Amino acid sequence: MNEHVALLAGAAGALGQATAQKLADAGFTVAGIDRNEDGLKELPDGIRYWVGDPTDSVVAKSLVDRIADEIGPPEVLVNTIGTYHLGDALDATPEDLRLMVDINAGTALWLTQAVAPYMRERGSGAIVHVAARQGLEPTAGMATYGVSKAALVHLTRVLDLELRPLGIRVNAVAPQIIDTAKNRPYLPPELLAHAVSPEAIADIVVYLVKDTAAPVSGAVLPAYGA
User: Fold this and answer.
1) Rounded CA gap, 222 and 174, in Å?
2) Is the pLDDT of residue 176 over 80?
3) Where are any strands of DSSP class E within the chain?
4) Nearest partner of 125 among 91, 75, 166, judged by Cα
5) What is the pLDDT of residue 181?
6) Which of 75, 79, 80, 98 has its CA 20 to 30 Å from the CA of residue 148?
7) Cα dihedral sign for 85, 87, 89, 93?
8) Measured between alpha carbons, how far is 208 from 168 in angstroms, rounded to an integer?
9) pLDDT of residue 190
10) Which H or E run includes 96?
11) Residue 187 above 80 pLDDT?
12) Which secondary structure element, helix H or strand E, spans residue 150, and what is its range?
C-alpha cells in the first residue's frame, strides 16, 4: 500500500479534476470521490475513484473506510465539494439554508470525522477545505451561501484547534470566483477578468498538504485574483 494517499472529495468538478492532476504530479496516490460518476470518468488516467455522496455522514465514513482498506489510509484530505445559491436574506427559505449548510459545511465535517482516526493513528495528516471570500466578507445577494461558507471557515479553525495536537493540520483556501466552463457564462466581463483558474487554486491546495507547509495550520488563505 502506498503511504501517500490523498482523498479528494468533489473530484468530478472542474476544481476537483485540476486538483487530482496536481496531487498526482506531486507524488500522491489520489482517491477521488463524488456522486457524479460521469464526471469521475473524466479524471486523468491512473486516478481511481469511488462513487458516493459524502454529504451523508454514513456514506462519507463508508467511502473513507473502503479507500483505506483498498489502497491505504489517507494521509491527506482535500474537500472541494460545494454549491452556491443566489438570493437576498429576506427571500431565503428553510430549504435554501439547509441545502447550503449541509453541502458547504456538513460535508467538510463528515469527511473530517471519517479521516481523522486514520490520521491520528499515523500521527500526522493534512486537511484542506475550499471556503470562499463570501464566508469571510459579507456579500449582498448571497445570504445563505455566505452563511454556509462562514460556517465552513469557523469549522476549519475549530478543527485546527482540536486536531493540531494530534499532528493533523487543517487549512482552507478561499477563492472569490473560479474560472470554470460552468461559471463563465454567468460572469460579467469585469468579474471574469479577476476569476482564478482551477489550476491556480489547485497549486495552493497542493502547497498546503505538502510537508513544506508543515508550520501552516488554521489558515484560511485568500485566493481572490488580481
Assistant:
1) 5
2) yes
3) 5-9, 29-34, 48-51, 74-79, 125-130, 168-175, 220-223
4) 75
5) 76
6) 75
7) negative
8) 12
9) 76
10) helix 94-101
11) no
12) helix 143-163
Question: What is the three-class DSSP state of 178?
Answer: strand
Contact, 10 vs 36, CB < 8 A?
no
Long-range contacts of 209-215 (CB under 8 A, 24+ apart): 209/6, 209/23, 209/28, 209/76, 209/78, 209/126, 209/128, 210/26, 210/126, 213/126, 213/169, 213/171, 214/169
Is residue 131 within 8 Å of residue 153, measured between CB atoms?
Answer: yes
pLDDT computed for residue 192 by the predictor: 78
The pLDDT score that the predictor gives to residue 2 is 53
For residue 170, what are the β-bridge partners?
127
Q: pTM for this one?
A: 0.94
Stretch (H or E) spanning 208: helix 198-209
Provide the CA 148 distance to its chain's centre, in angstroms: 14
Q: Cell numbers at residue 223, please?
A: 485566493
Q: In the structure grid, which three cell numbers stand for residue 43, read together?
A: 479524471
Pairing type for strands 48-51 and 125-130 reads unpaired
Q: CB–CB of 189/205 below 8 Å?
A: no
Please name which of 60, 47, 58, 108 lies closest in space to residue 82, comparing C-alpha atoms. Answer: 108
C-alpha span between 82 and 103 (Å, rounded):
6
Q: Measuring CA to CA, which residue among 140, 20, 149, 157 is closest to residue 83?
A: 149
Cell digits for 74? 489517507
184 pLDDT tier (thresholds 50, 70, 90): confident
